[in-house]
Each structure stands twice: as structure tokens, then as C-alpha cells.
Write a structure and sequence with these properties.
3-stranded antiparallel beta sheet, 3 strands, alpha+beta, about 80 residues, 3 helices, Arc Repressor Mutant, subunit A
Amino acid sequence: MDIQIPDPRNHNETILYNTQANLPLYRQFMSIGEKALLKSVLHHTNYNKVRTSKILGINRMTLGKKIKVLNIVPNPPEAAQ
């Protein structure tokens, strides 16, 4: 069940919460979407972290931390036969 709660930082907006996960819906989406984006770009660059970080516009060390936190396992594309 989803409910809307006033955002304490801005009284003109509300935050949509998913009561089962007890997290704002935006954070839930970002945790899923960020992992998918990182995996996609890593796949595109054959898991080259320097190229991936340049494409995403983030620091290479930040990318490494995100890979570790999100538990992204290298799965490079298979070699063309």
C-alpha cells in the first residue's frame, strides 16, 4: 500500500512511501535503476572501469564503491564466435 506524506523540507510537496519497504519510492527506484544502468554501461565497455566512469561522469573510485555496494559481479560479454 502506498501513502503520501508531506515532505518536511518543502511543505508544498509530498513524498510517496511504500509502506511495505518503508522507503521513499524514489529511493527504491534509484536502487534498482542505478544498478541496471551501471551493469549496462559496464557491459558496453567490457567492464573497463575508467571508460565506464567517464561515460557516467563519475569518479572511478566512486564507481568502484558503487559496484561493491550494489554487488555487481563482472559478467563481460561473450566473445564473438
